[in-house]
Design goal:
Chain A: It is a multi-pass membrane protein. Chain A: Its EC number is 7.2.1.1. The structure holds two protein chains of two kinds. By secondary structure, chain A is mainly α. In chain A, 61% of the residues lie in helices and 2% in strands. Chain A has one domain. A two-stranded antiparallel sheet of chain A has the order 1-2. The longest helix of chain A is centred in the middle third of the chain and has 31 residues. Chain B is mainly α. Classes of the chains: A mainly alpha, B mainly alpha.
């Protein structure tokens, strides 16, 4: 890590584990529940948020000294909305099918609490480079959880990964299906994501007991 | 033998496997230590006795379920007997053989996986093994179809015990009934194995599509499709109908329920109010039909015109009311709350049955829903009681004691 000082490196590392936006701060849950039935959608969503949060944090940080405090939320919304429109248009142009799967949830990145949270808590008080690292870090922390949840939900729910039939063909009964295995329909429905996220939180906190909140 | 076990226990006290040893030990023998101080009410029965009493009440249902599994299997192949005789057609070795080979593995898997996880958690967390699973493990095989694949049951049991119970802190802390959590998981994860006309009869799934195909639709399933069923009222009451393993015989469930009421294990308030709730909803539906508000071609017509009291005889309603709704952990705790809690279980069960063709049986959903609301019901019952007493306190005339005045003076001084 010669590229980054230790302090800067922590800006990226912390949100990945001990200060994860989903499992520790419990933000951005709605999209984690809605779009993680497929791994592909999870990855695209993670990349979209990475772009919006990385660029958005830099923009906000650059103009932080000229934003009047009273209307800062509106300014933040304008920035994030513009970025989300860019993402939405790019998806529609190059991955139309996927943008239909993600449907309204790309637009709803605007209301993702993680983004407004980072703007408010970090970008408004720090320089552009630091804000960029913080944005990347938090988006990665969000993305990691999304990909983990998406991996398990798609594998157990549909028997596929990125649409590839890794467990065999359920119709012609090959692979695991030939010995009577069946897909778990429960993993397809959104409540399953809540349970998978819950299990991740459980595992993380029992590995690092310092993270357990006082009741 | 007993003495030796006690010595062994002392020797291994504080070791990692101690909870596992203690669990087996106290299951068979009364422990030799007694309460020395602190508690003032000492009952002869501990949690294990309570659980064993419920299991005793379940045994008739289990045995009946075994015979019924065989009876339904052979009747689906050879046709139902013309003149039914209990000993020639039902209580036969052939029937029992089918039953024991299909039902016993379910029981073994349920107990094996469930207790295994309980032991594991007890050893990891270092507490004693809790008794809660004894009843759950017996309930689970009784509320699922006979041919449920064992690996599905194993996954569902693991899910139900870990997510339904252990994450909340184990027996006594769970908000949802673990047995019903397991059934709900099976239902949503593998719906093709939990509904339809193929799953209720042994071997029906394997024979589907061949020349020997057999099927057996439950009464509710037939009604949901608007078709007729061929079972008499007596069949429904005594339980000679297709259905989950142990839920069919209303007679034996009533006997088990009476046993639980007289041994004061289960709450009669919940049972009575749930029956009232189911009857009330059934009467409302029958009333709608009688008033002619619903045209005959409606898909709800057959289920809504089903006589209100017969809802109690079919499906899992009776079983759910007697054995599941009365779970002391997940149900309401206050006496008044129990009336509301039970009433809504019966009311909602019949409502889900009729209105949701996707779920031909709604009992488990209704009970799980009311499990969630039970603490809220209790909260309002307790608050209502506090309000009532405060009101009584305000209107009451309280004569000041002479000592009160003395205290007042010292305070102001």
């Amino acid at each position: 890590m010669a590229l980054l000082s230790k302090k800067d490196a922590n800006l990226i590392k912390d949100p990945l584990a001990d200060n994860n936006p989903i499992t520790i701060q419990v933000l951005g849950i709605c999209s984690a529940l809605a779009i993680t039935a497929e791994l592909k959608a999870s990855v695209v969503m993670a990349i979209s948020v990475l772009f919006v949060l990385g660029v958005g944090n830099v923009v906000i940080s650059l103009i932080r000294n000229i934003i009047p405090a009273k209307i800062r939320i509106i300014v933040q919304l304008v920035v994030v909305a513009s970025l989300v429109i860019i993402v939405d248009q790019v998806l529609k142009a190059f991955a139309y099918e996927l943008s239909k799967t993600l449907s309204v949830f790309v637009g709803l990145i605007i209301t993702n609490c993680i983004i407004m949270g980072r703007f408010e808590a970090f970008a408004l008080g720090n320089g552009p480079w630091k804000s960029f690292l913080d944005g990347i870090g938090n988006a990665l922390g969000y993305g990691v959880i999304l990909v983990i949840v998406g991996f398990f939900r798609e594998l157990l729910g549909s028997g596929t990964l990125f649409g590839m039939k890794v467990l065999g063909d359920p119709v012609s009964k090959t692979g695991l299906y030939s010995i009577g295995y069946e897909n778990n329909g429960f993993m397809i429905i959104p409540p399953a994501a809540l349970i998978v996220v819950g299990i991740i939180i459980w595992v993380q906190r029992s590995r690092n007991r310092a993270l357990i909140e006082e009741a | 033998m007993k003495e030796k076990l006690h010595q062994l226990k002392l020797k291994y006290q504080g070791k990692k496997m101690a909870p596992a040893f203690n669990a087996l030990h106290t299951f068979l023998y009364t422990p030799n230590e007694t309460t020395h101080s602190g508690s003032h009410v000492r009952g002869a029965d501990d949690l294990k006795r309570t659980m064993n009493t419920v299991i005793l009440a379940l045994v008739p249902c289990l045995l009946f379920g075994m015979f019924n599994a065989g009876y339904q299997h052979y009747s689906a192949i050879n046709g139902f007997p013309e003149s039914f005789s209990l000993f020639n057609d039902f209580l036969t070795w052939d029937n029992f053989l089918v039953g024991i080979t299909t039902v016993l593995p379910l029981v073994i898997v349920s107990y094996g996986i469930g207790l295994g996880i309980e032991f594991l958690f007890a050893v990891i967390k270092g507490h004693e093994v809790e008794e809660g699973y004894l009843v759950t493990g017996m309930l689970v095989p009784l509320i699922i179809p006979v041919d449920t694949p064992l690996w599905m049951l194993a996954i569902a049991v693991a899910f139900g015990v870990v997510i339904g119970k252990e994450v909340f802190g184990g027996t006594g802390m769970n908000i949802l009934n673990p047995a019903l959590t397991i059934r709900a998981f099976l239902f949503f994860a593998y719906p093709t194995w939990m509904s339809g006309d193929k799953v209720w009869v042994h071997e029906a799934v394997e024979r589907a599509g061949t020349a020997d195909a057999i099927s057996g639709e439950t009464v509710l399933g037939s009604l949901a499709q608007g078709s007729d069923y061929s079972y008499s009222l007596a069949d429904m009451f005594f339980g000679f109908i297709p259905g989950s393993v142990g839920e069919t015989s209303t007679l034996l469930i009533i006997l088990g329920g009476l046993f639980l009421i007289f041994s004061k294990i289960a709450s009669w308030r919940i049972m009575v109010s749930a029956v009232i709730g189911a009857l009330a909803m059934g009467l409302i539906f029958n009333g709608i039909i009688d008033a002619g508000w619903l045209p005959e071609y409606s898909k709800f017509y057959a289920l809504m015109s089903f006589p209100y009291w017969q809802h109690l005889l079919v499906g899992g309603l009776a079983f759910g009311i007697v054995f599941m709704a009365t779970d002391p952990v997940t149900g309401s705790q206050t006496n008044k709350g129990k009336w509301y809690y039970g009433f809504f279980i019966g009311f909602l069960s019949v409502m889900i049955r009729v209105f949701n063709p996707g779920y031909p049986e709604g009992v488990f959903l209704a009970i799980l829903l009311m499990n969630v609301f039970a603490p809220t019901i209790d909260h309002y019952v307790v608050r209502g009681n506090i309000k009532k007493r405060l009101k009584r306190f305000k209107t009451a005339t309280i004569y000041p004691k002479s000592s009160d005045e003395v205290e007042l003076k010292t305070e102001t001084a």
